[in-house]
Amino acid sequence: MPDTPELASERAYLAESRAALRRMHHDVLEREIPVIGGEDNDERFTNEANQRAHQQRTLALLDLPDVPLFFGRLDYDKGAIDDLERFYIGRRHVHDGSGVPMVVDWRAPVSVPFYRATRSDRQRVVLRRRYGFSDAAELTGFEDEPLIGTAEVDQADAFLRAEIERPRTGPMRDIVATIQPEQDDLVRAPLQPSVCVQGAPGTGKTAVGLHRVAYLLYTERERLRRGGVVIVGPNRSFLSYIRKVLPALGEVDVRQITIEELITQPALAVDTAETARIKGDARMAEILRRALWTFVGTPTEGILYSKGSQRYRVHDYEVVDIVAGLRESTRYTPGRNALAQRIAHAVLVLMERRGESPDDRVQNAVARSKPVKQLVDAVWPKVTPEQVLWRLFSDAEFLTAAAPELTDDERAALLWPKPPRSWKSAKWSSADTVLLDELDDLIERHAGSLGHLVLDEAQDLSAMQLRALGRRCRTGSATVLGDLAQATTAWAAGPWDQVLAHLGKPDGIVAELDRGFRVPEQIIDFAARLLPAIAPTLGTPTGVRTVADSLKVVATDKELFEATIVEACREALAGVGSVAVIAADEQVEQLRDVLAGAGLDAALLGAVEDAMDTTRLVCVPATLAKGLEFDAVVVAEPSRIVAAEPRGLQRLYVVLTRAVSRLQIVHADPLPSALG
Questions:
Q1: Angle at which helices 370-379 and 332-353 cross, to 10°
Q2: What is the pLDDT of residue 234?
Q3: Of 42, 23, 43, 25, the residue nearest 34 (C-alpha)
Q4: What pTM does this model have?
């Protein structure tokens, strides 16, 4: 766009807004933090909370030099909103020092028409303006969309497309400037009930989930602050990819972790896919409950409690009734504690019958007495989760009694071929740690609940993983994101209604995003050939962008395969933006070495967390590709990706839909028949 007086004026306004944000940051930085009292625990807690709030506010007001401060403008009817008629829409609120807004947060009600106003429902807006920026966040131009008058304007769509297609390098960007109405509905959905988004590739479901977090923190900050917000992603590479989105929106106090990091028990063993599938099955919840309560026995004798010269006998049948009344009516440890108290209460009744007047102190003394403790230890012993699981996987008879709903083959898959000598020496797998977490909750409930939980790529989670996550968000809400067609794990829980039920959010709303804004139509249509085989109940997604020559399939000889990969990468690097070579895990490191030998600088994703930050060309193991986007993708040997795992076709569907502009498939072996 050529320089004009109006463009110069807008650039000057951007500079003034940045200066105002720096003043706001300086004011908070210099503000003295109030200190309450001194040594009292409550006062120390208040002081620490003040310090944290100050640090978070300081971070939230940092001006990110590569992120535009505003991206749009709304001109309203005269007098429509107080005395203001023009609002600049941006990633955070900026004022001029006297309270007059210079930039309005995109989450504010006044910003909603930027995403939703149309000519037929202009919501008092006269004109909508969108700005273009360079990668260095320099304002390069703007396009106006009048919402009144009769002129036909198609510039807005072209401008949105240009923003969507802007080349990308490094971590994921926010989409706050390009949110579509159907995405905005989900972003601004209320905190309750929970929301589940079934999103086809390129529909922006991850971005919707992140922007929804930012929106909820804007509208429900105090409510969410108490429990906190956690985003759970499939792996560290994915979390590294999305890590900058929320800080760019001014939100810096959100934990982003994997489920393995959330469940802190170390995992040192590895299961087969079939064993992991069984351990992730919802049936394991009842099996674990049954196994735990097997440790509670049937009393065969009562107790004799002595106090001075007095003797008080609680008979065996009375203890049997007490145990039966408590069994499975509470968690294991509270039940054990209640058993001691109820036996003690029975002794107190005997004391009262003899004219004594015992109080609570006497009852507690009886509950702690040797005869009562010995009986409780014999009938209701202390157990750890590890003890229960070790016995379940070591003792075939115990497993059979606890798991009648499993087949013989399934029970055989769970049993250790060579059990460890004790639970203390056992090495647990990732699936085991989730079972230990379930047992821990059955033994004793832990207080606290997250305010909001975001699960990305949730289609890959098992029923038992979902239960573990749901326990951490008992009273909070959740945003569940995923695509059933991309379910690559053997233990995937199934349809979304089942996912929500296992998560403890059966009233959650399921919404679908099926318009692919990111992936070109030609690529989506090609990948969709796999859907009848992998997800026959899902409709075919729609691509809204057509990019010339976006799909290329190259058949080559085995002797020329590596050279063809190198040439495909050179061709992709001649363009702009990020480039990925995606291959089967066991092949990708060799291809990286081939590219390096050809003089191409290629990073290996997974070897270092920031691989996508260090170079334009990244070699990506197929199992780490989920959720990532690249301008250009070279897929090496699809048949090897399919053959590498039981759900190889689902994995291939993931791999084929990672390109935002260009996809080139290079193969020496025949393509999978499902691709036609």
A1: 140
A2: 93
A3: 43
A4: 0.89
